[in-house]
Amino acid sequence: MKKIKPIVLFGVILALILSMMLFSGCKDTPENNTNDVKPITDDDYTLTLSGLQDAEGNLLEDIVIKKSTIKTLYETKPAIFDEENPAVASDKQDDDGNLIPHTVKGVYLEDLLADYTESAPINVYGSLTLYATDGYVAVATDEVFDSDGRGSKMVIALEFDGEVLTTKSSNGALRTIFHDQVANTWVKYLYKIEFSTELLKTPTVYSLYSLDEIDVTTYGGQYTKEESDGTYTYYGLDISKMIGPSNILKGVQEIDKMSVVAWDYISGSDTYREYQKWATYDIYSNAYILTSGVCDADATWALTRTPVLNGPEFPDGMSVKNVLSVSVFHSAIVSFDTAMKRYDPDADGKTDGSFNMKDLLILLNMFKLDTQYSVTKTNNSKVNVSYAQMLGAKVTKNDDGKYVLNYGDTSIVFKAIDVVI
Ligand SMILES: [Ca+2]
Residue 18: is its pLDDT beyond 60? Predict the structure, then answer.
């Protein structure tokens, strides 16, 4: 008994601390936390539509739609994917390489806009930002949602794989489905859609920086996360430190969205796949490009599939592994390790430890006819490289693990490449 007592006491204190934390957490919630307000039922759950415009281009006020309204719309205009015609995410395969089928009952966003708002048709919008109550944010481009092109009409699901969605379900009260589009746009716990007429185009990059050559004493960062199986500490570059007038991510403003391109391993099909994801300022300004990590409970643990875009407050599913590039406004940070994996197997499939610089510059919107480049060496001196030289330039890795730009008889160990404007 003597041995158990301190543990019991510790448990009681811990429970007290936890309950105090919970209690103080409750005090911070909004003013409707009074006794005479009835609890929010599932029908009262709301979806906010923000940034809508009418046919004349006038901005409309936010519209708050109750879930009961969405259920009413379902009665007359249901969107249904059943076992005969299931919905699939274009990038989610089972172990046999087959797309995973889902049954869905819900409504089309377009019907909701037509029946309950003064909004212009969906094709006036260039992007939709989807917000979830767990902090997840996804940006869907018109390539995803505009069904006039290759996109798919967005479904707001009320039922998913046989489960009726409620505030208590694992999918949340509402979730989005874009049949035959990438899974990162299928958002659980949906509570807000922000509409923008701005077309999301991959940024035109004027300055690219090699991730490995970025000064960690200036731009490095780390954070620690307590998990059930140990304490993890992650190291890499702190994106917030890189934003600024004379920093790596020059001229970046809160309206700018970041394009994240990864060359990620798909375990189900044992292949790699390039994919692009957009991040809002709120997300990327709190993110890190992680290159390593340690776990205090497991000396053998190491962070894999680096670099990883992640952050201390990122909800599940937000992190991006095997990052190839992040680009925002006119700057990009490139992992040449990932670029080598991505581009070394040329059209002929030959893997020889080199790739055409042009291929990477095309991805970054940095390769246009007659462009001149300024290449910064690791010793900070600069070399001008012509369009013709860049056209034939190859990237290799030297014995010191540094990346080298090679053209003609010239080899440059580089840290950055700028477009000469
Ligand atoms: Ca090659």
Answer: no
State the pLDDT confidence band at 265, using cuts at 50, 70 and 90. confident
Q: Is the pLDDT of residue 65 over 70?
A: yes
3-state secondary structure of 185: helix
In this predicted structure, the answer to whether residue 328 has a pLDDT above a threshold of 90 is yes
* Domain regions of the chain by residue span: 42-196, 207-420
Give, as residue ranges, everything with CB less than 5 Å from ion ligand 1: 344, 346, 352, 354
Average pLDDT, the chain: 89
Query: Distance, CA 399 to ligand 1 centroid (Å)?
Result: 17
Under 8 Å between Cβ of 398 and 189: no
Neighbours of 116 (CB within 10 A): 15
Count of CB atoms within 10 A of residue 156's CB? 25
Distance CA 354, CA 58 (A): 52
Is 70 exceeded by the pLDDT of residue 398?
A: yes
Task: Please give the average per-residue pLDDT across 296-319, as a whole number.
Answer: 92
Q: Tell me how far CA of residue 160 lies from CA of 164, 186, 241, 301, in angstroms.
A: 7, 11, 41, 36
* CATH superfamily, domain at 42-196: Oxidoreductase, molybdopterin-binding domain (3.90.420.10)
Contacts of residue 27, Cβ cutoff 8 Å, sequence gap at least 6 = none
Q: What is the CA radius of gyration of the chain?
A: 25
Report CA(355)–ligand 1 centroid distance (Å).
5
* pLDDT (mean) for 410-421: 97
Q: What three-state secondary structure class fits 168?
A: coil
Q: What is the CA(351)–ligand 1 centre distance, in A?
A: 5
Of 215, 261, 263, nearest to 241 (Cα)?
A: 215
Question: H or E stretch including 350?
Answer: none
Q: Which two tokens stand for residue 214?
A: 């970025």
Rounded (10°) CA dihedral 293, 298, 299, 301:
-40
CA of 393 to the centre of ligand 1 (A): 12
User: How far, in Å, is the centroid of ligand 1 from the Cα of 341?
Assistant: 9
